[in-house]
Design brief:
By secondary structure, the protein is mainly α. It contains 18 helices and no strands. It is globular.
Length: 400
């Protein structure tokens, strides 16, 4: 019998997960770049089209913990259910050329999203050797951002009213194929961490009872919040400085692409050097400086530099935090990941709401975002000692 520590990594499972993770974001953001066109085609307001996307973070906040509990008890079944529901939601939108079908499909897919995204730590823990898990989490998280890029590209290439059904068909095909690949990849359970029996204590109590998980969850409020607020309101805030809608879309696309690259590379290097706290401090500090620069010297060039830098450094904070959670929580990893995502989405709602109230006062809005990023720096710096203790524990386990 091969020892668990010597078993090979099964990257096909990570590839299947990456495709489904991208599909969740594709379905979520299909209409982000064609709001006006979609409103005209389906005979509804732009606000109604906006709800096709807004239903996702709202339901994620409600379902994050239940989804984590499901994954902790029935990991493969829960993840497969998320993949199937994502595909079903995408297909349901093809039921008729009507807003009601779109909303129904979005609701089904939004229920699936926490089952998929909460599983990023669980699938790496089960299907990858310990040495490959930071890379696996980085790839899985980067695929989520890649799905955003795909959504923006499709909406840019298929932006006219008569092309929207083609966009929906392509999204549905991608989602169905992704679900099929993941189901095949998960036909056997992961060998590195076996399917768990029911834990002796509530997994929610285990996860929230861990001081490091609590700190990481609260910390997630700040980078998530700034990123969501920046992507939501950057064009409106910078319009007085000459930033057009087309230029803003290009900058945001580059921002997410930079985030994909950063998420695939930075977390792996950080894990090798045990520099998680330093990375979080640096990303939050530079984000604060970038927001302050946009407040004091707004312009197209400054927007391109600052927003791209924010994407490259801020988005990799997510896989860094999730990798720490994977090493820390064991039997409660799905619930712990759910806490991170839940607090992150809550931060997005709160900070975006605050910035939205200041949309006519760009200086104040950017300074608020800078302050929110800066206030999280001491918390990130305080993580150095518990992370060092976690590294020591992991090394002791490896030697044992």
């Amino acid at each position: 019998m091969v020892e668990v520590g010597l078993l090979p990594s099964r990257w096909v499972a990570i590839a299947g997960f990456a495709l489904v993770g991208a599909a969740t974001q594709l379905v979520w953001l299909n209409f982000a770049g064609v709001t006006t066109v979609a409103a005209e085609r389906y005979g509804v307001s732009e606000s109604a089209i906006g709800w096709l996307a807004q239903v996702f973070p709202l339901l994620y906040f409600v379902l994050a913990i239940p989804a984590g509990l499901i994954l902790d008890k029935w990991f493969r079944s829960g993840l497969v259910a998320g993949a199937v529901l994502t595909a079903m939601g995408a297909l349901l939108r093809l039921g008729g050329d009507d807003y009601g079908w779109l909303l129904a499909g979005q609701i089904v897919a939004s229920v699936a999203q926490p089952l998929v995204l909460n599983a990023v730590t669980g699938i790496t823990g089960r299907y990858l050797a310990a040495k490959d898990r930071p890379t696996g989490i980085a790839v899985g998280t980067a695929s989520v951002f890649a799905g955003m890029v795909l959504a923006f590209l499709l909406s840019a290439l298929l932006a006219s009213s008569n092309e929207l059904p083609t966009m929906l068909w392509l999204s549905a095909i991608f989602s169905v194929v992704a679900a099929g690949i993941l189901i095949v990849a998960l036909r056997k359970p992961g060998e590195h961490k076996m399917e768990r029996r029911r834990p002796e204590r509530s997994t929610l109590r285990i996860a929230w009872g861990d001081p490091l998980v609590r700190r990481l969850s609260v910390l997630a409020l700040f980078p998530f919040g700034v990123f969501v607020a920046m992507t939501t309101f950057s064009q409106a805030l910078l319009e007085p400085a000459g930033l057009t809608a087309g230029t803003a879309s290009t900058i945001l696309l580059v921002n997410v692409i930079a985030g994909v690259i950063g998420s695939a590379v930075i977390p792996v290097l950080v894990a090798r050097r045990h520099a998680e706290s330093a990375l979080l401090v640096a990303s939050l500090t530079i984000t604060a400086v970038a927001c302050a620069a946009l407040a004091l010297a707004p312009g197209v060039v400054m927007a391109f530099i600052a927003i791209t830098l924010i994407g490259f450094l801020l988005l990799p904070a997510l896989p860094v935090v999730l990798e720490l959670v994977e090493r820390r929580t064991g039997e409660a990893e799905g619930t712990a990941a759910g806490l991170i995502w839940m607090f992150g989405n809550l931060g997005g709602l709160l900070v975006a709401t605050a910035v939205g109230l200041l949309v006519d006062r760009p200086l104040a809005a950017f300074l608020v975002m800078a302050g929110i990023a800066l206030v999280a720096v001491p918390g990130a710096r305080a993580l150095k000692r518990p992370i060092a203790e976690l590294d020591a524990d992991s090394a002791a386990v490896g030697q044992g």
